[in-house]
Each structure stands twice: as C-alpha cells, then as structure tokens.
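Retro notes, structure queue

What went well: the backlog is down to a handful. What didn't: a couple of records were mislabeled last round, so from now on we paste the full input next to the output in the thread. Example, using NIDO domain-containing protein from Cyprinus carpio carpio:
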Amino acid sequence: MRFLISLCVSLLLLINGEIINGQTSVAYSNISSDPCYNYESLDRPWRANNESGVHICEERFSWNGWYRLFYYGMNIQMPETCVSSYSCNTHISLWLNGSHPQIEDGVVTREVCGNYYSGGCCNYKTNPIRVKACPGNYYVYELVKPQIGCSGYCTDVSTISQPNSTVSPNIITGASNTSNYDPCNNYNILDNHRRSTLNYWSMYGSANGLDDTRVEWDGWYRLFINGASAQMPESCFYYMSCGGYSALYLGGSHPRLEDGVVTREIYGSRYHQCSYYRSEPIQVKACPGNYYVYKFTRPPLSIPAPVYCAALLTTPSVDPCYNYTSLDEPWRATDHSNILKCDYSVEWNGWYRMFYNGQNTQMTESCVNHGMCGTHYPLSLNGPHPQLEDGVVTRQVCFSVGGCCAYRSHPIRVKACPGNYYVYEFVKPIFCGAYCVEIFYPFGSAAGDTINAAADDGSSSVIQLLSPFLFFGRTHQQIYVNNNGHLTFNQPSSSYVPYSFPARGSQDIIAGLWTNLDNSVRGVVSYHQYTSGNVLTRATRDINTHFPNLTFTASWVFVATWDKVAYFNLTNTETSFQVVLISGGNFSFLLMNYGDIAVTGHPLQAGYDTVNSTHYFVIPESVNGSFISNLRNSSNVNVLGRWVFRVDGEPRNSILNIAFSNISSDPCYNYESLDRPWRANNESGVHICDEGFSWNGWYRLFYYGMNIQMPETCVSSYSCNTHISLWLNGSHPQIEDGVVTREVCGNYYSGGCCNYKTNPIRVKACPGNYYVYELVKPQIGCSGYCTDVSTISRPISTVSPNIITGASNTSNYDPCNNYNILDNYRRSTLNYGYWFGYANGLDDTRVEWDGWYRLFIDGSSAQMPESCFYYMSCGGFSALYLGGSHPRLEDGVVTREIYGSRYHQCSYYRSEPIQVKACPGNYYVYKFTRPTLSIPAPVYCAVLLTTPSVDPCYNYTSLDEPWRATDHSNILKCDYNVEWNGWYRMFYNGQNTQMTESCVNHGMCGTHYPLSLNGPHPQLEDGVVTRQVCFSVGGCCAYRSHPIRVKACPGNYYVYEFVKPMYCGAYCVEIFYPFGSAAGDTINAAVDDGSSSVIQLLSPFLFFGRTYQQIYVNNNGHLTFNQPSSSYVPYSFPARGSQDIIAGLWTNLDNSVRGVVSYHQYTSGNVLTRATRDINTHFPNLTFTASWVFVATWDKVSYFNLTNTETSFQVVLISGGNFSFLLMNYGDIAVTGHPVQAGYDTVNSTHYFVIPESINGSFISNLRNSSNVNVLGRWVFRVDGEPRNSILNNNVIGFRIRLSSFLDLTQNGSTEIVLEQIKQELVKYGLPNNIELKLRKLQKIKP
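Corresponding output:
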C-alpha cells in the first residue's frame, strides 16, 4: 500500500524536528464509534477562564471517554493560550498547548499545560489529551484525570458560539420510571454512599466526583445509603460534602403524610456560607412507612458540581436517654489546651452522654477559643439544647476558626432527657476537632442542686455554710442566693435595680449579674455545697492553674447557678451564669462563669463590693446592657467566660494606684527587658503568636536598646509580624497615676480597629521617661503586642532590672570540664509549635548568656543540629542551627556560623557566630551568645547525640506498608500519628525497598504530603548519616520536615531512624520492583561494556510475534535476546536491523567504577501479585494475571569517564496467558554528553518506540518525571503481538502532519531528514515500516 502524505509548509519554514505526538487522523467506520456523536455533554460555566473564587479539583472526578463542552447550552472550547492560576475555579488552570485541529485532522493529541503562581505559563504539564473537530463547529475532548495538584480543565469565554443541531450524545441518566400513580409506590432508587453527608473529601478521600448537573433526572426518587433508608438534610452541610463540591440541602422541613406533595427550596453551600447558592425547587412527599420521595431536577449550571445530599433516616429503637455511652474525658473542657485530640479518629457509634470528672455536663453552646478542648478546632453546638418536649432534634456543629461559627462540621442529633441531662449522636467531624464540654461547674437537679422557688425577685432561704467563708477580712457562716443574680451574706435581697460599685454601703455583696431577672417565667436558679468529691478536685486544679504561685487544696465549694433565666418582661431571653465560692486553708476565691448572656435595657452590675467599699471590682463593660453578652468572651485568667479573684484578705485584684514600699517591689525597677524590634508596627512578613509565650510579671519594651512603647492607636492587621495586632486602647498614664489598667484591642482584616478585645493589662509610667507593662497571655487568635516606632527614645540610666540569666560559671579552665548545663526538652528539633502544642515560648534574646554550655534533652546528651530545621521548631519561632560540621577533638575551640530558618527558607537569618569545642566522652560544648535582635524569637536547637549501642542493620523493625509506594494515592495516612521508636527497614509486599530520593506528587504515598529523602542514600563506608526530609507542596523540596538518620547495610539495604514529621505526611518508598542482593538478584560482573551470561527464561516471552527462551542483560543499559552486546554507542530507532532490542537507557555506562547491574526472575510470590496489579491498573480493559516476571536493574551506575554520576533505572518484563508487557521504571538519571536511546526496536523495525526526549543527554534526567501511564518515572507497553500502542485502525485513509523545524527545506538533504522524522512518528503509531513518503510543496494563497 502506498500512503500519500500531505505536508503543508511555507517554502522557508523553520523546523526543529520536534514532532507533535499523535496528530494523526482517524476515520470512523460508523457514527456510533465516532466521538463527535458519542460523547457526554459537559456544561460547567464555572470552569470559564473569567471565573474564580472556589477551588475544584478535576482529579476528584471520574473521567471516562469523550466530552463536549458547553457554556449555558452554548458551544465553548478549551483555551489555547496561558490562563492565570486560580482562574476557572481551581488552583492550577489547565489549557491546551497547541491549536485545535481542523475536521480533516481527525483525532489529534495535545499537550495540556497548567499555570500556578508566577512560575510561567506552562510550568506544570499533565497527561496529554486527545481532541477532535466535529461537523457543526464544535470539538470533543477525551479528558483524563490530571496528575498534578488541584487542577481543572478551563474553558475560554471568547470561543462561545450557538450550537448547531447534531446527533444526540450519550448522557448519564437516572433510572427511568414514569407513572401517573402515587410516587410513594413508583419511584427510582438512588443508593450511593458517596451522597452521604458524612462523606467529606478532605478527610475521607472517597468523596468528590459527583455532579448532579450531569444526570438526566426522570421522575421521583427515594434515597438510600448502602441499603439503609435516607432523606435529604434540612440544614446546611459544608462544601465538598456528599461526594460533590456544592452540598445541596432542603430549605425547610419535610412534609407530613397529610401534606401530600409539597414544593421546597434547595440551597447549596460555598465554603462556610450555607445558602450561597439557590438551586431549582423540587417536589417532596412523605410516604407511609416513614420515608420520603423527591422529584429531583437538574440543578442550575452556575452551581459548581452540585449534589443532592443524603442523611440516614433512622429513629432510635430504644430511647437514647437510657441507652447511651458515657463520655468522661476532661480534656474536652473549654479551658483545656490543645493536646492534638481528633474526634475524626474515633469510631463513633450511637448516643453519648457527657461527663466532666464524673459530673454531668453538656456540650458548649458558645464559641470556644481555637486550640482549646484538647484539640485544634473546638466543636460547639450552634443553637440551644432542646427541651424535653422537643424529642430528638438536629443541631449544627460549629468549629472555631476565622470566627465563632464561620465554619461548620457535620450536624448531630441531640435529645433532652429527664434528670436535666442530654444525649448526643456524635459523628466523625470534618477536620481535626473535638466536641467540647462546658466549663460550668455541675448544676441542676442531676447534680443534686437545691432549686430556688420560681418567684420574681425571690431569694433562697438562709443557707448555712458547711465551712466558714473569709471575704476580705470578714468571716461569713451563711449566705443567700437571690434570684436577681447576686449573693448576700446577712439578709436576702429582692432588689432588681443594682446600685453602682463602689457603693460605700454596709454590706458585702457578690454580683454574678445583678439585674432584673425573672425565673418565674423561664429558667432555674439553684445552688449546692461540696466538701468532698470530684468538684473539690476540679476546684483545686482550677485555682492552682489560675494562681500558679500558690499551692492550694480546696476543702469547700459553693456553686450557685442561674440557668437560662429570662429578664423581666422579656420572656424569650435566656441568661446563664454561675458564681462559685472556693475555700481551703487560709485562702478564699471567687469564680464567675458566664454562658450566653442576652442583651438587655435593664440596669445591671457584675463584680463585687464590700462594706465601705474598702475592696471592690467591676467587670469591664458589665454595666452596659448592650454589651453584656460580651461577658461570655471576656476573662482575667485567659479562659473565655471566666473571672477569678482571690478574696480572703488584702486587695489582690485592685486596679487602683499602688504605692510601692521599696524599690525591689516597684515594677519600674523590677521588670524584664523585652527587646523585640520585629514587633514594631512597621514590621510584617511572619506570624508569631504571643499566646505561645509564657508571660509572668512586668516588662519594659526596647527597640535595639532604645525605649519604645505600645501604640495608642489602631494598627493594621498582619503588622508587627503577627495576625491580630494588639494596641493600647487609651493613653499611657502619667507618673502620678501609678498603676492603671488599659483595654487591649486587636485588628484583624477590615472588621474595625477594635473588633477584637483581649485581656486588659496594667501599665505604669516610670522615672526616666519609660513605661512598664504587666503583659498577659492574649486570649484571641494569633496575636502579638505591638510597639510604636514613632515613640523610640534614648534610655536614661536607671536601677538595673531583673533579667533572665543562664547559670553563671566563669572559668579559665578547659570548657569541657567547666560548663553550664542547658537541659530543656522544648529545644528539641522534634518540638514543633504547630502540632505538638508545648512548643513556642522560648526566645534566646531574653537570656543573659554567660560562659560555655552543654546541651541535654531530658537528661540525654544532645548537640546542635548541623542542618536546617523548619521555623517554629525547637520551642521558638526561628530555629537556629550550626552552619557547618562539629569539630573533632584535635581541632580544639573553633568558631561556627549560626543560621536561622524563616518558613521554608533555611538560611534566611544569620545570627552571631559562636565557639564550639569537641570533648572527650563524645559530647560538645558551646559558648552561646545573645542572638541578633532582628531575628524573631530565635532559639538554639538541640538534637539527641546518640550512637546506636547495637548496629541498626541487625536491630530494626520491618515496615511493610504498600500504601507508602510513590504510585499510591492519598488514603489520609499520617506518620505524625505513629509512635516511632528506633530504626526501620522498608519493604514493599515483602520485598526489600528504600525511601525515594526524588520528588513525589502531592497526594501520593497514601498521604497528603509525601516525604522523600533530600539527597542520596549513604554508602556502606559512610556509617550513620543525617539526611534532610522533603515534603511535596509548592515545589519538590520547598518545605522540609525533621531530618532523619540513615545507614547503608551489607546486603544492599538501608535502615532509617524515623521520627514524627511536622505535618500529615508519610515516608515514601520507591516504585522500583525489588532489586539487589537482598532481593536475591544475580549481579553482573563489574566490567565496562560487559554483559550477563545467557539467561534461560523460566517462561517463554512473546515479543511482537517472536517467542524467546533466553535473554542477555547488557551493562550498557539494554536487553538483547540472541546474543550479548558490548555496544556503548546506541544506534537510532528505527534501525531496520536483524535483532529485537529493549533499551532501558542504552548509553556508555560503566559499572566497573560505580553501581550494580542485576536481574531476577519470578514465577510466584509478591512480585507477581504486584505485576498483576500494575498491569490491570495501567490497562483497565484487560483482565490479566501475571505468571512470570523478569526484573533487570541498573542501580546508581555511573557513565564512562564520569565517575561521580549515578543513574538508576529498571526494565521489567511481564507475561501471563497470551499477554506480554514491558515496564520501565526511571529513578535519578544524570545528564550526559554520551549518545543515549530509550525505548525498543524489533527486527526490520516493524515495531519500535522511542521515549520522547530520551535521545537528548541534556534532558535525559526528565525521564524521572515522564510517563505514559500517569505514574511519574514509569513507561509501560503491551508487546505480545500487533501494535497495541497504535491509535490507528484499518480504516485509515490519510494523514495530515503539522510540524515545525529549524531546517531550511530548500536545502539539499533537509527534505530527507524531515521525511525520516515523520516516518518514525507514523511507525510509532502503527504504520508498517515499508511506507513511502513523498513531500509535496504547496503555495498557500490568501483568500
């Protein structure tokens, strides 16, 4: 057969010989197989290149076949030019790198590019796709799952056109069931577990991929989840729930049986915005048997990937009030800091009742600080608990980030029970959060409280105290609980109008919230005394927490509670608070807890007052009914909603002026110097949180040694190197004012200058024109105390302040024998602020260093690390490490540079150099100095200095977890949840393997952040080495985790001392098939240009029609069947030679200098299992079982005369039944100037393939990042018979090839070169090698 090829070029077209792969025409024998008439319609206007705002990832959808693109019913096509990142409602915006074809071009293959940030228009490339132009002026695309990040196929709004009528395409349809009968008896079943509201993609992996605009709805539907009856939810669900992107829910309650068919609105969520989208209304009907049917319709196209949600429709068979699991976990309290608890790790099942140290409690209904309740994201109930008569109700669950209920988790069901308690049907939350319990002390009938009569303005009877209570010098034996929110000691009070404190009256009074309350209408007032039990235990803990300098044991507690009490004449209001009196020994304390406080116009007062007002306190803003609800978010002890006072004697809480009896007690002369220039209001760029530091006492502020003070005016958010910038809301005092209290405001985003308020602080003006501040831990977000550069002044000499000092040990002797011990576990490199809670808080600029120091971690010898650690490691913000290796004993005292990290930038900061000395006994001493003040919170890091007592090569734990493979998708594995201990050897399905040394795609290795080794594995002679660990986000090694130690072992394997990584990542293993001596390989002789002996195959191998019983593994990177080959210069494919050859990487390799060439055959075991899995994955239309595998590996082999190079690759032959496959794995490939070739060629070149760019030694390293099966570094081919890689068929009638080159076609010889290049491209796609090509030059004439 003669083929006539038409090559359209201008006479002087410049061509570089690069063939645009696969731009070949295909003629279809009938309309049913032509993708122009056999496609799925894809109408997603939110993918247009002028859309942005949400981030939807195509890799979450299932792609299968051909697609025609629409924009609200009109034709649209993919862009052919660069699209900005974050366009098309995704992160990485995908566009076609090449023009669309003409109809005569048939099916062509086009490269797909992605743009992310500013790295260039095509800095990401994903799998190519096939495209076809169709009659009617539209295109169809064979879309595939992208292999990069969160990416999306864009559409170009400039290409919109009205469609012409064509043959109807295939569509996805629901089950058709048209009927005029009752829909309760005639419905379609919709049973898909992915529609479940509990299916959230970020945590559970299996979600996303659904899009109900792609379904042709037909009739009525009944919902099921895995066979269990379900219904649509009636409340909001977080975006990306229910298997799609926009979770659709019912905008109203379900109908009753008697309502018949009703119409309900449908809403969809966008991020945390519940009703952002409004879909088409649907009809709903309640049916006998307690289920519902829905007449679903196609949602609006403008909603991104909308999905009708489903929630299980279950009624408890047993009353959950009497069939629950007790949940008593004190860390759930709203005052408990983050200890990394995550309720999504709990297998919740059924109903739960909450306790706190054995006492009944309930979920909090109010906002909780981020990082409290023992978790990262505290979960609270969005709405009040139900009443008994409400039965089982559903409540939204909020988690605290970016606002009180800005984001929501899955709703839960709640029921009120007799005995004043609640039960909850908990489910896995969306993120790492935990259900919180109230910090109120036990109350109500379940706690045994005595309940006041429900009488307006009433009081309790006189209550005889079980223990005397000392209140500012007066001892009381009795008390009254007054319904209007206050306690009195001598007589009851019916007063509903509070007087102002100080009243200078004749009685002691405690006002929890003294106002006009009315418990006759709503709410309960109750009280209880305790002299033993868990309440005393809790009170002891609370007081010792809030007063850390005391050693206190509670012996008596009195709790008075106002629970959901209404204001007078405001019957729908509810106000809850608690007054707790605590005593023990000579100490007395007053504790006030505030829940939800309704605003009111009634006069009110919160605080305490004494006889003649010798002592009093008014809680800030508690006299303003419009702001009284803020009590829930205020505190003087950094626990929102709690105020605590010591009340036994002298005024411990006074905010009055204080005269100090001597200079040692005056804070003007008893402060800590705080020189943090990075807190100035003109600084930004990093985010350091003052709640991570320990605050204790008074502080004087400096700026590089000069005075500075806090700002008195608004500071922009993200200034002062923090998120929420804190400033003083009020002027600084004068000296004569003494100590004053000032409100502290914070600004975040654009919510106003004082939209956040934290705990007030005390301030004092001092002689010498400076101020001291009693700074406390802020209670909001990530905040920081700012300084104002406009207030800088030179300091005047004053009495020297107290400072934090290291232990002084000055000596002229050898520092190896005279050093200070520095033992602080927080300096450990494993102490990372974000995940482990107890990090941060150190700042080595605040230490007065003196002499030499030896490092320890919890008593174990340690040393400074020699490599970079991530910021916020080591207990501070900027992790300092040694800029060079430690000295040897004979080196004596040496000087080393010190560097500090900023985010992922390792040497961003350079601190002062220090001296270091190696000492006998295998330890080091350091002469630490004060780090540079411009470095934010720098800390000298420490890493354990340990030498294995037993060789870890023979004392390791085997780690065989196949999900760690570089080709395994994310299943939410997290190695920071593993308690690593000692050394580990890695296996893959029983076969020896190793950590990958190369970049791994984000979301692979079974985790979110794959961890790879940054650098080569050691050699045997290296012993134990330390290697950086990279995780893949924003670049191959843009971010790092903690380094690990690695050792090479005899038998060609490695052991690793794994540690908890910083983030949710996992250590990856290579995808190479097992190799080396540990796998039982036969090793080729280390001979340049050598080969193996003849290898008799244990199973015949069929290679394009020829069956082989033997093979040779040649050291120069190729396999031959009939004879060995010493050739180190590859010939070009197609060679039209007399032999079959497989070139993994045929070039001039030299294993006599470096590296190992080895091979192994398998006829049983795990390798066959893996091969079976791989082939069925890469060829999903086959059902294949491997019966034989041959693995040849070139491991770290050098190029000839380039002894420092290392190149690793693998050729795997797989057969089973009548099938044969060739698999090539590529690791790190060094660039080279030697000729190279990768692919295969057959006798007479009837079949051949050249891997793109594999003939260019400068680009050969890209093999590690190339693939034809969407697994980076892997190429797979079916090689048993006819050309299986062809995209052609027997109905080919012609081709049109478009190419570009730098050759001048008018010159002699250039035509032949171009034709040969074209022929190679055509043969690669299945044409016989005996085709004849001719060039016909055409003159293009403009119309």
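Agreed that this is the format going forward. Reviewer comment attached to the example: The two ends are 35 Å apart (CA to CA).
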